[in-house]
Write a structure and sequence with these properties.
alpha+beta; about 525 residues
Length: about 525
């Protein structure tokens, strides 16, 4: 008697995301730490200097967190109403913020009370930032105005009111102390020079602008609004370079990696997309539990911090690479160790006789049952949740083997309501899969033949049979539609082929007609 051959499990190609260097890089973060804030997190800003503390603006407070702290190390709560846009100065010593009560407040990181208060706006101030020279502040508010303030004198230097709707975002140039950009709900982006009376560049985003961001070279500007992220060429007067539409809800925040090679965008669709700044394609994506309002990367990309509408602050830390041990630090082995590893790397020569050690083959549970001709138990062994849900190809392969042996009907018969319900659930899930449909249709036919007499005795089984009927009807109608489309395509291809043959024949005929008179003329001349 020949030895038993295990059931051959067919392998199918698995569709999954393409593994790239970006995938490996952006997945190299630890499990996120989540901190609950008092309200929606509207702004996150990292200190440009070490240690990399970050300011989180939420509700009527600005919390300062350390790199690994889960509790705020400092809190600024001197706001009468909702605070907005807590931003660090480029030396990390001062923090400025706007407020719903139209006041701009300046704080010392080492103190508690505000150092300066700037009054001049008439509505909520949503955007504040420091200029490159550290001595001025730019602000934008819901009164359509943008203002430049002098820090030492607490006075207003210049005011612009060119927008026709709320000014909700902006940024300042780090290379030029007088240049700043504002984005508004009037769908426009304006570039201002504090030395002039009017804006110097105007751009039309076509949607309410939620965020603007200057690239490190400041030759490019990114803007977010609606479902679009747009890139503008500042050296060509604000010419649109590319428009990205990778989100299906409003994009709320933008952020650049430390190298400037990757642009991150957060949206209300609960996704953060990572774009390459060379070809502007999405190279990676993060999923979150709630809509995203704010996003920030640490200066060395060591942390990703995301603020959401439900007040949760999500923090991911990059995993540190383990340092390889030097040879001097490796523990020395005992001299006897070489006896046990002797010949480990030996390569057999041509004249050597190689004696292989017999390998004991271990059969799977369903193979052992099939070997013992226990067909019903073998089918039960592959209908357990761990197999039928994760590897349905194993279940189908065993059914195919039972069908090949002619014992499938015996294995399907004699089942109680629970066992039959499990079998029907497997059919409902996998019958329409083209990989398994040929085998499972045969299984479904045999189940109907065996259990048709008991239909009407169990409501659960009756509902599953009705679902199976609907599934088959939908699949048949789908196949009929595909056949109709295939017929139309065949007709189009046939028509195109006929036209090509007709055109070719006409060309050949015209060539022959052109050639014939010339030959006749030549013959007449010769005669």
């Amino acid at each position: 008697m020949s030895a038993y051959k295990p059931v051959a499990i067919p392998s199918f190609p698995k569709l999954g995301e393409k593994i790239t260097q970006d995938t490996l890089y952006w997945k190299h973060y630890k499990t996120p730490v989540q901190i609950k804030e008092f309200g929606a997190v509207t702004k996150i800003d990292f200190s440009p200097v070490q240690p990399c503390n970050y300011a989180v603006t939420s509700s009527t407070r600005i919390h300062i967190y350390g790199q690994y702290s889960q509790e705020p190390i400092k809190t600024f709560s001197r706001f009468k109403d909702t605070a907005y846009c807590g931003t660090y100065r480029n030396d990390g010593k001062l923090v400025v913020a706007g407020c719903e009560d139209s006041v701009v407040q300046l704080f010392d990181v080492g103190g508690k009370a505000s150092l300066r208060q700037f009054h001049g706006h008439s509505k909520a101030v949503h955007f504040v930032d420091f200029t490159g020279d550290k001595y001025r502040i730019v602000s934008g508010a819901d009164d359509y105005a943008s203002k430049v303030w002098d820090i030492p004198n607490s006075t207003e230097i210049v005011s612009y009111k060119e927008h026709t709707d709320y000014v909700r975002c902006g940024c300042t140039s780090k290379l030029n102390d007088n240049i700043f950009v504002t984005g508004s709900y009037d769908h426009t982006i304006k570039v201002f020079d504090a030395r002039t009376e009017h804006s110097v560049i105007n751009m039309e985003h076509e949607h309410p602008v939620e965020s603007v961001l200057l690239f490190p070279s400041e030759g490019l500007l990114a803007s977010a609004g609606g479902r679009f992220v747009k890139i503008w060429d500042m050296l060509k007067g604000g010419q649109l370079l590319v428009s990205l539409k990778n989100h299906h809800k409003t994009v709320t925040c933008l952020c650049l990696s430390s190298s400037g090679q990757r642009l991150l965008s957060g949206s209300l669709d609960r996704h953060v997309k990572v774009h390459s700044t060379t070809n502007y394609k999405v190279v990676h994506s993060f999923d979150y539990a709630a809509s995203i309002l704010s996003l920030a990367l640490a200066p060395d990309d060591d942390m990703i911090v995301v603020g959401m509408t439900n007040g949760v602050l999500n923090i991911k830390h990059r995993k540190r690479e383990e340092k390889k041990l030097s040879q001097s630090s490796v523990k020395k082995r005992h001299p006897r160790y070489r006896v046990f590893v002797k010949g480990k790397d030996y390569m057999p020569k041509q004249d050597d006789i190689f004696v292989s050690k017999p390998v004991t083959e271990h059969l799977r549970n369903y193979d052992r049952l099939l070997k013992g001709f226990e067909m019903s138990k073998a089918l039960d062994a592959v209908l357990v949740p761990g197999i039928r849900l994760s590897t349905p190809e194993v279940t189908v392969a065993v059914m195919n083997e039972l069908n090949r042996r002619g014992t499938l009907k015996n294995a399907l018969a004699g089942r109680n309501e629970k066992e039959l319900s499990t079998l029907m659930l497997f059919l409902l899930k996998n019958l329409a899969d083209p990989r398994f449909s040929q085998i499972l249709v045969n299984v479904a036919e045999q189940i109907i033949d065996i259990y048709a007499p008991i239909i009407g005795q169990s409501s659960v089984i009756d509902q599953q049979f009705l679902k199976l009927q609907d599934l088959i009807q939908k699949e048949i109608s789908y196949q009929e539609e595909l056949l109709e489309v295939l017929g139309m395509m065949d007709t189009l291809f046939a028509t195109m082929t006929t036209k090509k043959q007709t055109v070719l024949e006409e060309k050949m005929l015209s060539t022959a007609q052109d050639f014939e008179p010339k030959n006749v003329t030549t013959l007449n001349q010769t005669a």
